[in-house]
Task: inverse folding
C-alpha cells in the first residue's frame, strides 16, 4: 500500500481556538500570510463548528500540474513540497488550487505553502499545527490506512474528485456547542 500522509480533521472537537494557525505561523516565521486557516462553519447545513485547513497534499495536485517552473514535487510519503528557489511568483498555482492553499508571500515575491513540517517530521515530531491542537481535533495520519472510515469530500468543492485531497473529516452527528459551567468543567449541550 502506497503511503500518503495527510490530516484528519474532527469537526466535533475543534473549538476554534486558532492554536494550530498560530503554531504554524510561529514555526515558519510567517508575517504577511497564513499557511493554515481556521474558519467558522456557522450554523449552515446543520453544522455548528470550525474547520482548520491548509494544503491538502493532494494525490493529484493541481498546483504541480500547472506550475511552469516545476516548483512542486510529490514526495514518496505523499507530501507536496514547494521549492521557492525555482518560483517566479507567477501565481498560476493559486488559481489552479481548488482549496486556495498556495499563498503569495509579498515579502519574498514567491509562493509559500504548507510543507507538513517536513523538518519536524525528520526529527520524529508531529507537524506544529497538530502538536498545538489541545482538543486533538487535528491529527496527522497515513490516509490509505484509514480509507473509507471518514468523509472524503469537503462540502461544496467539486474539484476534490480530481485532485483527491489527503484530508479526511469526522463530521458532527448532531450540532453541539460546549458551555463552561460554574466549576470550570466542560459541559456538552445539544442544540
Result:
Amino acid at each position: 500500500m502506497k503511503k500518503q500522509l495527510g490530516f484528519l480533521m474532527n469537526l466535533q472537537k475543534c473549538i476554534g481556538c486558532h492554536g494550530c494557525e498560530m503554531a504554524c505561523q510561529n514555526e515558519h516565521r510567517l508575517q504577511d500570510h497564513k499557511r493554515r486557516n481556521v474558519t467558522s462553519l456557522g450554523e449552515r447545513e446543520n453544522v455548528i463548528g470550525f474547520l482548520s485547513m491548509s494544503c491538502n497534499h493532494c494525490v493529484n495536485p493541481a498546483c504541480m500540474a500547472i506550475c511552469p517552473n516545476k516548483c512542486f514535487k510529490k514526495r514518496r510519503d505523499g507530501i507536496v513540497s514547494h521549492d521557492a528557489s525555482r518560483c517566479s511568483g507567477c501565481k498560476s498555482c493559486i488559481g489552479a488550487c481548488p482549496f486556495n492553499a498556495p499563498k503569495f508571500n509579498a515579502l519574498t515575491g514567491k509562493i509559500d505553502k504548507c510543507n507538513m513540517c517536513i523538518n519536524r517530521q525528520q526529527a520524529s515530531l508531529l507537524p506544529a499545527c497538530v502538536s498545538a491542537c489541545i482538543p486533538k481535533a487535528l491529527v496527522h495520519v497515513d490516509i490509505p490506512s484509514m480509507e473509507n472510515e471518514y468523509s472524503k469530500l469537503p462540502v461544496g468543492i467539486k474539484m476534490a474528485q480530481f485532485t483527491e485531497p489527503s484530508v479526511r473529516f469526522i463530521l458532527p452527528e448532531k450540532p453541539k456547542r460546549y458551555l463552561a459551567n460554574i466549576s470550570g468543567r466542560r459541559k456538552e449541550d445539544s442544540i
Remarks:
- Residues 175-191 have pLDDT under 50 and may be disordered.
